[in-house]
Amino acid sequence: MTEMLLIPAIPLVAALLCLAVKNSRVREYVTLVGAAMLLSATLNAAAGALDGMTLTAFGGLLYMDALSAYMLSVIAALTLVTVIYSIEYMRHELDTSVINDGAHRHYYVLFNVFVFTMTIVPLSNNLAMMWISIEATTLVSALLVGFYRKKESIEAAWKYIMLCTVGITFALLGTFIMYYASATLSGEGAGVLEWTSLKAAAHGLNPATVRLSFILIMVGYGTKAGLAPVHNWLPDAHSEAPTPISALLSGILLNCAFYGIMRFAVITDIACGHAFVQDIMTVFGLGSVVIASVFILMQTNSKRLLAYSSIEHMGIISLSFGVGGPFGIYASLLHILNHAMGKPLMFFVTGRIRALHGTVETTEVRGLLKSAPLVGALGFVGLMALTGMPPFGMFISEFLMFRGLADAGRWGVIAVFLAASVLVFYGFIRRFGGMFLGAPPKGSGHGHGTYWPASAVLVALGGGLLLLGLYIPGTLDRLITMSVAVTGGGQ
Amino acid sequence: MIRQWIEIFSVIDAISIGMLLTTLAMNSVRRIETCLKAYTMNSLLLALLMGVCAIYMGIAHLYIAAAVTLISKGIVIPYLLRRVVRSLRLTRDAEPYIGTTMSLVISAVLVVIVYSSLSKGIVVEGVIENTLKISISIILIGLFIMITRKKAVTQVIGLLFMENGLFLAGFSLTYGMPTLIELGVLFDLLMGVIILGVFLSQIKKAFVSVDLDRLTTLKG
């Protein structure tokens, strides 16, 4: 139990320390040490989950199984990576007087609170508590999206908080209806909304009620997860937030919301049969892929381009989760990890491009492979990885998704998906290709202080993507397989 | 004795209808402080409904829920919003995208749709049979207000009406959530209002207005 409580406690303590500390360097190290401790605490708890243990605390309010452990590990690992990059990014902002010391403190406090709210999501067993924590992530991250207080960032933050709160209102209605469905079975009380007891009782739930609940959940959490057609806030929020926050939003926050959908999908699957869940998740997933592929063609701002790519990848995750079966859910979970590495890598690359050239417009930057070899090469790796090219990880997870779709006989979906993928690939190469290849214009680019651990992080993310494309480590494979078993897939 | 009175005079239905009427009133109100009064009234009715149900059903945690709703939605949130509205010197809402008559008609149509379609999957019987339908209507009308208004602050009020409808829905489905959960949701809501207030003043500062038609820098 204590190992589980440590996980949310660490970022919370780090936030309080950052609030108290006056020296900007100390704040950075507090956050860094906190993130490292968070990762080790999470891996420690995940090791327990690997042995088949499930942890509970507060009378079943908090709960951890293999799936929660997997999501938490992704969150913790990416937090550490992002903190290291944040140090470089925020130092640059301080040095160029874009922000003052107060804003610097503001950033690190909110960063830690944001991580705290995200760690609660996979730990909640009570579905209403999960809702509370997901809404809390919106509130905290909206402040981070509006961090620069420029017109564009305020507008993006406003749009973000309004659309996500409205969306998530429907998710709460869905949660209420799920509560109603189970309360009519077994009476009221806090235990009725616990995922574990809902799953056990799912066979007896009224299918019509559960269906209504799942549709509301899909629309509600789908808004937050960036699934089309309720994704409109996402490109603005991702492009206006400070780059490390864009990486967190895209790499893990979207997955936190999707995690909510997953837990409900498991119950709906048992109560209403698989076909219903499969149809809804396929519609949302494929719709997101198609819409994103069209919008990717029109973007010239590289951060907006990456934001639309997030919509595409959330679509892939939803699509493969919906297919289910032994391949689908495995592919979905593996894709979450791949995306959580690939997208931050690309955001960090654009952050460095911004520091070098003062712009993230794809039309104004040329020849990065020559002028900044490390950034150029890793950007190229990220580009190939995000478009699903071998030998990178996303090729494997998308291939597994095809296996699942083919087993389910959904050839039409495969055809549409492939067509959309071609568009995405074309859009990416057309916009990003020019940034990396070609000759750099003379006299462009002013040097900026790079922080070597941040460079190491970039290399590690690129290396991780390559590794997952070549082979999946045994421990990871076991954790994902056990998570698949938690969702009831794979039989 | 009191239980019979509640049944004879359909007190619960009457209060729910009062909530629906205060929501409908939003369609024709232009002065922002009057909008806030409509919202306060709506919240007070919600708290009253919970209190009446607590007496009627004799459920202890409903008393707590009613008290917490009264304090947070009936007093604190309206107070915070009024402060923001006064400090930003907001008086009247801009003309909405859809005129008063038309928006009243649309709201009425929404209510009819809810009443005619909400029969599958969910069967709520007894004294709160109408409440669920009214609550869903309030959620939809709140959403409609959010979409058609131009001022940021009226959007926030629309959102708050949605939340009231949502609480009413949760209440009519299962007589409210467990107290701990209810407190958590209200805490989120309160934080949300405070953060939205912060953004309102930032919008005013950056755009010199809180008209949302000016928030159009980001497209595509």
Can you give a write-up of this model?
The complex is a heterodimer of chains A (491) and B (220). Chain A is mainly alpha-helical and 491 residues long. Chain A has a domain at 283-491. Helices cover 79% and strands 1% of the residues of chain A. Chain A contains 19 helices and 2 strands. Chain A has helices at residues 2-20, 24-50, 66-95, 101-123, 127-145, 151-186, 195-201, 207-225, 233-240, 243-272, 274-298, 302-323, 325-357, 368-371, 373-386, 393-407, 411-436, 452-470, 474-486; strands at 55-57, 62-64. In chain A, strands 1-2 form a two-stranded antiparallel sheet. In chain A, α3 runs parallel beside α13 (325-357). The longest helix of chain A is centred in the middle third of the chain and has 36 residues, at 151-186. Chain B is mostly helical and 220 residues long. Chain B has one domain (2-208). In chain B, 75% of the residues lie in helices and 0% in strands. The interface between A and B is large, with 50 and 39 residues.
Number of strands of chain B: 0
Topology pattern of chain A, helix = H, strand = E? HHEEHHHHHHHHHHHHHHHHH
- What's the gyration radius of chain B in Å? 18 Å
- Largest binding interface between chains: A-B, 50 and 39 residues
Number of domains of chain B: 1
Spatially, the strands of the biggest sheet of chain A line up as 1-2
Q: List the uncertain runs of chain B.
A: none
Which consecutive residue ranges of chain A, at least 5 long each, have pLDDT under 50? none
